């Protein structure tokens, strides 16, 4: 038997185990009573943030907490709760951070204003740099002796040693 073929045959059980593990991770397909429930569930799991992963929705995350949150959204959707009620429940349980689009309220003003504050600060810094450059003298003021030395250097082409 050729060596590459042997390696492939030895790797086959590993590929089978990996495929089986991935199939288990996907879980069973969810069943809904109506398409409206399916749309609500899909919308909510893409809107709620995994508080463990912090940069992923609960739809994308493989964390146990995300799986628990997906299960809870599924159960509440089947029980007939609307999207706002489910989001309110998640916010009460995990805080405003669980929402990818937090509402505009007193404790999130800085979050919403920060892009504009950073832009404004950048404009001020840029303006100060530009104005600072304009106020700098174009030619430095030299004494008559320094001007004579500069003129001599220009004419000689080589610096004098002192």
From TrEMBL:
Pfam families registered for this protein in UniProt: CcmH
Domain CcmH/CycL/Ccl2/NrfF N-terminal: 19-153
Residue ranges of the TM segments: 109-129
Keywords: Cytochrome c-type biogenesis, Heme, Iron, Membrane, Metal-binding, Signal, Transmembrane, Transmembrane helix
Region (Disordered): 141-162
Record GO terms (molecular function): metal ion binding
One example of a Gene Ontology biological process annotation: cytochrome complex assembly
Residue ranges of coiled coil: none
One CC-aspect GO term: plasma membrane
Range of residues in the leader sequence: none
Gene3D superfamilies given in the database record: Cytochrome C biogenesis protein
Protein's job: Possible subunit of a heme lyase.
Family: Belongs to the CcmH/CycL/Ccl2/NrfF family.
The name this protein goes by in its record: Cytochrome c-type biogenesis protein
Organism the protein comes from: Billgrantia kenyensis
């Amino acid at each position: 038997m050729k060596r590459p073929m042997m390696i492939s045959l030895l790797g086959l059980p590993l590929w089978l185990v990996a495929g089986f593990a991935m199939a288990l991770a996907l879980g069973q397909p969810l069943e809904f009573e109506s398409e409206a429930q399916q749309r609500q569930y899909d919308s909510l799991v893409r809107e709620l943030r995994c508080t463990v992963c912090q940069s992923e929705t609960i739809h994308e995350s493989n964390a146990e907490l995300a799986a628990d949150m997906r299960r809870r959204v599924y159960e509440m959707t089947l029980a007939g709760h609307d999207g706002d009620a489910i989001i309110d429940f998640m916010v009460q349980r995990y805080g405003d951070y669980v929402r990818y689009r937090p509402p505009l309220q007193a404790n999130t003003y800085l979050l919403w204003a920060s892009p504009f504050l950073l832009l404004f600060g950048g404009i001020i810094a840029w303006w100060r740099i530009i104005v600072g450059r304009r106020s700098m003298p174009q030619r430095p003021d030299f004494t008559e002796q320094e001007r004579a030395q500069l003129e001599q250097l220009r004419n000689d082409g080589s610096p004098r040693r002192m």
